[in-house]
Amino acid sequence: MSAAGDAPPAQSRGELRVVGTSVTREVERLLDQTADACGKRAPRILQVGSRTVASDRNERNWRALVAKRFGNHARFVGIDLQGGSNVDCVLDICGTLRTLLGKLGDEPFDLVICCHVLEHTRHPGKAARNIEQILKPGGLAYIATPWSQAFHAAPDDYWRFSVRGLMLMFARLDIVSSFYSGGDVGLDVAYRVVRDGKPDLEPQAAGVEQGLFQLVLDHEDNRAVLARQATERLPVSRTYLPTLFVNIVGRRNT
Length: 254
Description:
This protein is an alpha/beta fold. It has 7 helices and 12 strands.
C-alpha cells in the first residue's frame, strides 16, 4: 500500500506491434461496430463519392456490402459531384451544411464512408467539418486517403494525408482504428500499428511507420530500377514508396 500523498505507480505500456490484417477484415469490423451501435434500429449510412466508373475495378461496392450485412433494413444514400451509377443525390460534401441538410434531411447518419475522395476536394477541412456535423453522436466515419499515390485527376488531385493529418482534420472524432493499406488490384493486405490492442497514435510510433514502407536504394540499384521502366524516368531520388493509403475509423464524440 502506498503512503498517503504518494503517486500511484505508472502502468507499464505494452510493446508496439505491427499487426497484419486486410481491408476486407477491417470493413467487416466496421459494419459489425455499426450494427452493435444501432441494435435493432435500421442504420442510416452515407457514402461520399459514390459514383462508379469503369476504372474503379479495385473499389468496394459499399451499397452491396451494406445490403449483404443489413438486408433491406439499412437506409443507404450515395452522393457525388456528378450524377451516374450508384448516385442518389448530386451534392458537394464541401458545400454549406445548410445545403447538405436540405438535401439529406436533418436526421444524422450512423456511418459515413469517405474513401479516396478528400484528395480530390478543394476544401478537405470543410468536408471534414461537414462529415462530423452530419454524424450522429457515437456514429462512425471511415476515411481512406492516399499517403503516396500517382497523380490522378478525378476531376483533379490536390492533397496527400498522413494519419496524424487526418486526426487534426477530424478533431471531433475519437480514433477507434487506423491502418495502412496498399493499392494493387487483387492484393488485399493492410497493417495496423497497435499498443495494448489499441491504435498507437503517439509521435513515437512514427519511426516505426516510416521504416515499414520506405525503401532507400543506393545509386546503382536506383539506376537499375529506372532502366527497367518502359518509359524514360529521371533519377531525381533514391527513395521509393509504394502506393500507400491511410485509413481511420473515428467515432463522433458528444
